[in-house]
Amino acid sequence: MSEAPATPYLRVDIARLRANIEATAARAAAAGVALRPHAKTHKSPDIARLQLEAGAIGLTVATIGEAEVFVEHGVEDVFVAYPLWLSDDAARRLRDLAGRADLAIGVDSVAAAQHAGAALEGTGIAVLVEVDSGQHRSGAMPADAGVVAAAAAEAGLPVRGVFTFPGHGYSPELMVSAADDEAAALTTAVVAFREAGLEPDVVSGGSTPTLTHTHTGALTEIRPGVYLFGDAQQWELGAMAPGSIALTCRATVVSHAGGRLVLDSGSKVLGADRAPYATGGGRLLDHPDARVLQLSEHHAVVDLAGAALPPLGSQVDVVPNHVCAAVNLADTLWADDGTTPVSWPVAARGRNS
Amino acid sequence: MSEAPATPYLRVDIARLRANIEATAARAAAAGVALRPHAKTHKSPDIARLQLEAGAIGLTVATIGEAEVFVEHGVEDVFVAYPLWLSDDAARRLRDLAGRADLAIGVDSVAAAQHAGAALEGTGIAVLVEVDSGQHRSGAMPADAGVVAAAAAEAGLPVRGVFTFPGHGYSPELMVSAADDEAAALTTAVVAFREAGLEPDVVSGGSTPTLTHTHTGALTEIRPGVYLFGDAQQWELGAMAPGSIALTCRATVVSHAGGRLVLDSGSKVLGADRAPYATGGGRLLDHPDARVLQLSEHHAVVDLAGAALPPLGSQVDVVPNHVCAAVNLADTLWADDGTTPVSWPVAARGRNS
Q1: Cβ A211 vs Cβ A4: under 8 Å
Q2: What is the ipTM of this complex?
Q3: Does B275 lie in the same domain as B249?
Q4: List of residues 6+ apart from B65 with CB closer than 8 A
Q5: Which among A10, A18, A78, A61 has a CA at the least distance from the CA of A333?
Q6: pTM score, whole prediction
Q7: Which residues contact A102 (CB under 8 A, 6 or more apart)?
Q8: Structural domain count of chain A
């Protein structure tokens, strides 16, 4: 590819990407915890390979479809960190994968454990019990983890351990305490396992905003996703510095209407995520004081905080609020090492089932 | 396709879709305005055909990539309602299309008109001048429309007329007054054209929330997009009744953790759009009092307002907040007439350039 892609497109700074991957791998190694990155962020076999080469023990995914893509591309150890309720077809797809990779899935209730057991017994597919550490999304109460684990074992499934996602740490106020909550929930769950006569081999947690706060003594594994790219959310949470952000949307200035800066990077390429703490619809990498005031499908209207308007037709780099959402809209990431951009397929895009 | 698709998937109720298409076509015909639906909403050649068969004069699109897809599928009249700033490659792509369809693009400044003229002179591609009617996104000031139009004519481009998008009408407070603003802006622009010695053949506006408020006497054409599906935004604005909503996301109940209803329809299938007036992350078609409290990538946590939790593994229909965003995440729409669902490709998905 010698010609630059048409804007808006997602550009990956390879040097920053590698630095982020290596820094988190080193952090995990130093803390003595395994790193199983969440591949929902990148959905890219090219990037998964970089993570595995840097020492990741396997991948985390959110759906069976993502698992299929990564197993197809040679990944041998995949955890579907989701409380799957298996339809007949979903169970068949998992059984088809079972001989090709080391697989595990999440369950968060006795009913789900029994249902999964009926579908997967004898396949070698393991389960981890999901517990709620404070996000109040899915996950059993930590004290109930042993009951769920015992039900899974009774249903004939290998029980690998327990996991949580401290998602309430996506907040400036809760970023530190969410890591405390995570450790407490997992510790309670381990006690509950032991009371049920089971020993969890894996105690898994982690997220990008809580990465530096994780109580690694309480965990055996972390599953951050966003750390390798960063985004405006991590920037605004103070979890990653703008100089580490490895993915941007390259956009063209299409209008100066009303003295405004209007870019062609709308929500159909950036995503529309806007957390309560977000200061706008995205950030400009080279204009830290600028804010995306209005984001519609194909327009980003930017307040440049008094800076001169870049000329019509010029290009700027926009940092999406939530990089997982932006990647999920793209078929291709353009990986740039300063020479010729290379296309990396977003192979698992759209694999929501 | 005899087997039901795996959840989460987007399902189109064909009877409702046809009723919506026909009702708006009839409304436009009765008002004496042309209907040029915005195809960004559906990105589907199958649905474009239904619109054209019902009397639409052509399509509106947002990008050259969308225009390419619809021309490829035989659509003969396409307006790119966007202030394009043409790169060399974009201009080449438009020139390639020029012989195959009646094409027009937007411009919103003298500079853009001159730039487009240099690239497109002699191709027959026409321009419409975009004016700002109160959304304050792109668009020239209405009084400047004549100057921009004159610059386009001077640059050798056929000037077809003027257009606006009253996007500030996506608000319970402004839905009616935005239609007033639209009419005022377009009327001012027509005067400005005449002062520049030009007569606009097309005076174009319209949006789904303002559809019943449009001053059709001031317009020759309307370009609504969402009207054919509806979504939670239109429902909550009062612009469409839930009984008209023709697209839903079919989701599976995956967890009852903490007494919550957790569905597998996350933001990666619904989109994360949440307007200031939205009451949640989406609505449930059959539970009007329910609200999606938390929407993450693969989970929707629903407050059922006291109703009994549907069983684990059962399916419910979720109405996305913004249907354009949901469709833009899907490769396929499952069109259902009550017999066997048929797949309609979202052929222009991802065509953001």
Answers
A1: no
A2: 0.97
A3: yes
A4: B348, B351, B352, B353
A5: A10
A6: 0.97
A7: A58, A76, A77, A78
A8: 2
For the record, the structure tokens of B353 come out as: 């350039």
Confidence of residue A2 (pLDDT cuts 50, 70, 90): very low
Pair A293, A303: CB distance under 8 Å: yes
Task: State which residues form the domain around A248.
Answer: 233-321
Q: Using alpha carbons only, how large is chain A's radius of gyration in Å?
A: 21
Give tens-digit pLDDT for A242-288: 999 999 999 999 999 999 999 999 999 999 999 999 999 999 999 99
Q: How many CB pairs below 8 Å do chains A and B form together?
A: 184
In this structure, which amino acid lies at residue B325?
A
Token look-up 């982020």 returns A20
Same domain, B19 and B162: yes
Beta-carbon contacts of A133 under 8 Å, excluding residues fewer than 6 positions away, are: A139, A142, A164, A165, A166, A168, A178, A181, A182, A184, A185, A186, A205
Q: What is the CATH number of the domain that holds B262?
A: 2.40.37.20
User: Is A51 a residue whose pLDDT tops 90?
Assistant: yes
Q: Do B352 and A8 touch (CB under 8 A)?
A: yes
Cβ atoms of B271 and B321 within 8 Å: the answer is yes
- Closest alpha carbon within chain B to A281: B273
- SS3 of B83-100: ECCCCHHHHHHHHHHHCC
Instruction: Test B141 with A256 for CB contact under 8 angstroms.
Output: no
CB contact under 8 Å between B324 and A252, yes or no, is no
Closest residue in A to B312 (Cα–Cα): A85
Could you tell me the pLDDT band of residue B2, with boundaries at 50, 70 and 90? very low
* Interchain pair B138, A255: CB under 8 A: yes
> What span, in angstroms and rounded, lies between the C-alpha atoms of A81 and A127?
9
Same structural domain for residues A243 and A145? no
> Inter-chain contact A254–B82, Cβ cutoff 8 Å?
yes
Question: Which residue in A88, A298, A327, A332 has the most chain B C-beta atoms within 10 A of its own C-beta, making it the best mutation to test that interface?
Answer: A298
Query: Which residues of chain B have a CB within 8 Å of the CB of A40?
Result: 297-298
Q: Are A340 and A292 in contact (CB under 8 A)?
A: no
Residue B117 three-state SS:
helix
DSSP string, B203-253: EEE--STTTTT--GGG-SEE---GGGT--HHHHHHTSS-GGG--EEEEEEE
Q: Which of B40, B64, B292, B297 is the best substitution to test chain A (most A C-beta atoms within 10 A)? A: B297
Check CB contact under 8 Å for A9 and B260: no
**Structure confidence at residue B4 (pLDDT):** 79
Report the pLDDT value the prediction gives residue A3, as an integer from 0 to 100: 66
What is the DSSP-derived secondary structure letter of residue B38?
Answer: B
Distance CA A239, CA A230 (A): 9
Which of B168, B267, B268, B312 to mutate: most A Cβ within 10 Å?
B268
Q: Do A121 and A158 form a contact (C-beta atoms < 8 A)?
A: no
In angstroms, the CA A61 to CA A56 distance is 14
β-strand pairing of A300-303 with A291-295: antiparallel
Length of chain A equals: 353
How do strand A247-255 and strand A9-13 relate by DSSP bridges?
A: antiparallel
Flag if B271 and A272 touch (Cβ within 8 Å): yes
> Is position B61 within any domain?
yes
The verdict on B271 and B184 lying in the same domain is no
pLDDT at B1 exceeding the cut of 60? no
Residue B281 is assigned to a structural domain of this protein: yes
- For the cut 90, the answer to whether the pLDDT of residue B129 exceeds it is yes
